[in-house]
Amino acid sequence: MRTVLWPGRAAARCGAVSAPVRLGLTGGIGSGKSTVAALLAQQGAGVIDADAISRATTAANGTAIPQIRSHFGESFVSEDGALDRERMRQHVFANPQAKKELEAIIHPLVGQAIAEQAQQLASDGKTCIVFDIPLLVESGHWRAKLDRVLVVDCSPETQVQRVGVRSALAAPDVQKIIAAQAPRARRLAAADIVLVNDGISLQELASQVHEIGLQFGL
Question: What CA–CA distance (Å, rounded) separates 30 from 197?
């Protein structure tokens, strides 16, 4: 399979100087999405990492900590001022509603931080802002905020192999993670551009990312 590129409209859009292209980037675990984000950054794109922002909100003295402390109690905050993740995992397992309560605290803070970073990158003159969002398809609301969606795709067998090597996880454990994410067909259906990262070298991947970047003024 070859990378599917979005013709015409993306190239025309990136010619506008009034606002940068907002490119959503997503892919299943082990697809190589983080590598693609790094390659786009090297090409000059501004990259916003939603996962990193989310983790920062619950790190020591993160913006979510005061609300977590107030809502869940002091026992859910560790001595260093971060979320006690193990205690929260146990609490969510016993009380499924707690996950929604935690998300109601974290998600608005993440959304605000993403908006602030996007505004700063636009002010810096970036022609393309990449929104690296693992749950872009699952969230449901992101598509309307983006000009294009780039999906990094590979076979489930490749996902299992890569994650097994990277994280020392057994195949059944990786398969459970894959099953918990949006189905591959659903991600592909949401894509304007599909980059097939399967059976190619890093050099070949970089070449395809470069070709995609050119569409967005990079």
Answer: 10
Angle at which helices 97-123 and 85-94 cross, to 10°:
130
Of 25, 2, 26, 30, nearest to 157 (Cα)?
30
Handedness of CA 189, 194, 196, 197 (dihedral sign): negative
Pair of tokens at residue 115? 């908006």
Report the distance separating Cα 44 and Cα 126, nearest Å: 8
Tell me if 45 sits within 8 A of 126, measured CB to CB.
yes
d(CA 144, CA 156): 28
Residue 197: how many other CB atoms lie within 10 Å? 24
Alpha-carbon span 99 to 81, nearest angstrom = 20
CB 15 within 8 A of CB 218: no
Residue 6 has pLDDT above 90, yes or no: no
Residues 6 or more apart whose CB falls under 8 angstroms from that of 16 comprise: none
**Which pTM value belongs to this model?**
0.86
Residue with tokens 């636009």: 122
Exposed / middle / buried, residue 38 (Cβ in 10 Å: 0-12, 13-18, 19+): middle
pLDDT digit string (tens) for 129-145? 999 998 899 887 888 89
- Which tens digits make up the pLDDT trace of 185-211? 999 999 999 999 999 999 999 999 999
18 confidence band (pLDDT: 50, 70, 90):
low
